[in-house]
Amino acid sequence: MKKIAAYIENERGNVALLVLGLISVMIILFMLVLNLAGALIVKEQAMSTSQQAALAATASLYEELPGFILSYEKELKEFIEEEEAAKEAEEPGEPEEPEEPKEKEKTIEELIDEETEKLSGEMSDYSLNEIRNEAIDRILSKELDKGLGNNLLKTKLSLEMEYDWIKSMKESARSAIIANGGEVEGAVMTVFEDGQIVVESAHEVEAIGYNGFFAGIKENLFKSSKGPELKFVKKLPEWEGRTYSLE
């Protein structure tokens, strides 16, 4: 009888150990599922953050354009007047008969207003700001093709980008990452990729641990997103693929 009792007691102990083992495995599997779900959530957060940062950088660039356009037109007018004066000085002659007054050319601002009105019907689902940005983009693309003033527009755009706009675009993207709870460590902005601003940033994912499993595991999950296409920057091939740190 003692042997039977000892055997039963031993079996009970084995069953208890088996149950404890199964419970541990189930808990680990549960932790694994929770960690995978958490990683997916962080992945979506990282994607959203990089998207917001790319949009912020694009918006920053568009904010600079109205004032830039006025400055460019003033400089172009001065350039043309100087060229005409130099040409007249080189080719003196009898005064010509006064020509009939030509129709005044429209300013870029007027062309943008016209394009905005035209696009309002085509882009009725968009905000007025988005429609105007699209109009600016289209008109600048056309003006760049003209190459007026020895490609003055292209030259000025590149200079402004190099010495002013990149700085504000980086700051806008960085601020958006921080505001969305992202990590600026390792974050980068690419200007441009097929006419788009691309931002890569991360969110930190921390594993849920159990009994030593997964405990203390932390990792930055990186995702990248693109802003809307900018047609006019495609006319600036020297800017394709430049990458800047956002740290």
Automatic annotation (TrEMBL):
Residues 13-57 form the Putative Flp pilus-assembly TadG-like N-terminal domain. Residues 82-106 are annotated as: Disordered. Residues 82-100 have a biased composition (Acidic residues). The chain crosses the membrane at residues 15-42. Pfam families: Tad (PF13400). Keywords: Membrane, Transmembrane, Transmembrane helix. This is Flp pilus-assembly TadE/G-like family protein.
